[in-house]
Amino acid sequence: MGGKKPVMLEIMETFLIQLPLEMDGINKGIESHDYAAIKKHAHTMRSTVSIMGISTLEADLREMESMGSLEGHLERMKQIQKIINTTCTKAIHEIEHEKLSY
Amino acid sequence: MKRLSKLLVNLGLRKKVIFIVEDNPVYAKTLQSFIHTRFPEIRIHHFPVGETCIQELDEKPFIIIMDYFLDTSFSDAATGLSTIKRIKEIAPKTKIILLSSEVNLDLVMKAHTIASCQFVLKDDRAFNIVERIVAEALHS
Question: What is the pTM of this model?
């Protein structure tokens, strides 16, 4: 996307706003056992991370989403939640750093 | 007004329009940017829910790219498929691409039979498939 610095910047800024919201949605969903919210936020996050090239989370989010549909497996959800939070926090730092070069 | 809008498009005096209906802002902006890079002559409008897209059909989009799940921000938002049905009632000739991150055969069949729209899986090839469909529609 040559000559598209403002667009890239805009995408990165949107990502930096959106990803924490999605993490928060999953975390709160797990805390309150709100399986529908977990499913919804895991689904949205799957698109977000995929578009930003964070493919390592794809399988975990897919699993989280199906457990949300099944309304169970809370312990497994908490395990995946840790992976998601760690990976997303790292991604946020990387994008913040990347943003500085634009 | 509608006639004038169409006439301007036909005369090449007004840019063709694509609607993107997608509730994920990162995905929407990236797709919008991708399409703009490949087809700078096309205007692109983004809507986070189908209801607002329907209100703007006067713009005569030649393609609508619609996500299936649109309830991230508004839990009672209509699904992509129900929005498509409504669009087809109002503007039956509009070409529609239904995006989903799920391979759901039932959804694929419904998308095709009910609304004659093309289903595109939101994987790493999705943008290229959309590009091909847009190019074909532009030259048809």
Answer: 0.84
Which residues lie below 8 Å from residue B121, measured CB to CB, with a gap of 6+? B99, B100, B101, B103
- Chain B residues touching residue A7 (CB < 8 angstroms): 29, 33, 36
Is B25–A14 a contact, with Cβ atoms under 8 angstroms apart? yes
Q: A18-21 contacts: CB < 8 A, separation 24 or more?
A: A18/A48, A18/B24, A18/B25, A18/B26, A19/A45, A19/A48, A19/A49, A19/A88, A19/A91, A19/A92, A20/A88, A20/A92
Interface test with B, best of A5, A9, A10, A11 (most B CBs within 10 A): A11
Q: Which residue of A has its CA nearest to B122?
A: A47
Closest by Cα among A46, A35, A20 to B100: A46
- Residues in chain B closer than 8 A to A15 (CB atoms): 26
pLDDT(B2) > 60: no
What is the predicted ipTM? 0.82
Higher pLDDT, B140 or B31: B31
CA distance linking residue A23 with residue A39, whole number of Å: 12
Confidence of residue B110 (pLDDT cuts 50, 70, 90): confident
Q: pLDDT confidence of A1, banded at 50, 70, 90?
A: very low
